[in-house]
Amino acid sequence: MKIRVAYSENEKDRKAQHEAAVKGLFPDTKVRETAAKDGFLHTVLTVPRPPKSTK
């Protein structure tokens, strides 16, 4: 599952809160920062799929 967060320079504290909440629920979340586009910064949080528990 991918979660995209778009924010401006003055909203970095909110972005950190979102990132911390997702990482609290899913510790193996990958975080990728992208370049600024149209005045907004973007972060992509990728939550990996859980392994299959049945055969």
Structure notes:
With 55 residues, this protein is of the alpha+beta class. The chain is built from one helix and three strands; from the N terminus they run E-H-E-E. It has a three-stranded antiparallel beta sheet with strand order 1-3-2, covered by helices on one side. A hairpin with a 2-residue loop joins strand 2 and strand 3. The relative contact order is 0.32. The mean pLDDT is 91.
Please give a handful of descriptors for the protein shown.
55 residues; alpha+beta; 3-stranded antiparallel β-sheet; 25% helix; 38% strand; elongated
Total helical segments: 1
Along the chain, the helix and strand elements come as EHEE
Integer-rounded radius of gyration: 13 Å
Low-confidence runs (pLDDT<50, min 5 residues)?
none
What do the pLDDT scores average to? 91
| Major β-sheet profile | 3 strands, antiparallel
Total strand segments: 3
Euclidean distance between termini CA atoms: 23 Å
Helix content: 25-40%
- Given helix and strand content, the structural type is alpha+beta
The strand line-up of the biggest sheet is: 1-3-2
Principal-axis shape: elongated
- Estimated share of beta-strand residues: 35-45%
